[in-house]
Amino acid sequence: DIGKKLKAGVFLFIVINI
């Protein structure tokens, strides 16, 4: 499901930027 992948990608992006 693309929505799940997108959500995981955004979550990872936020975590990496903290």
On the 0 to 100 scale, the average pLDDT is 93
Helix and strand content put the structural class at: mainly alpha
Strand content: under 5%
Sheet of most strands: none
Count of DSSP H/I helices = 1
Q: What's the arrangement of secondary structure elements?
A:
Blueprint: H1 2-17
Quick take:
With 18 residues, the chain is mainly α. The protein is built from one helix and no strands.
Q: What does this entry look like structurally?
A:
This protein is mostly helical and 18 residues long. The protein contains one helix and no strands. The chain has one helix spanning 2-17. The N and C termini lie far apart (27 Å). The mean pLDDT is 93.
Key terms:
mainly alpha; single chain; 89% helix; 18 residues
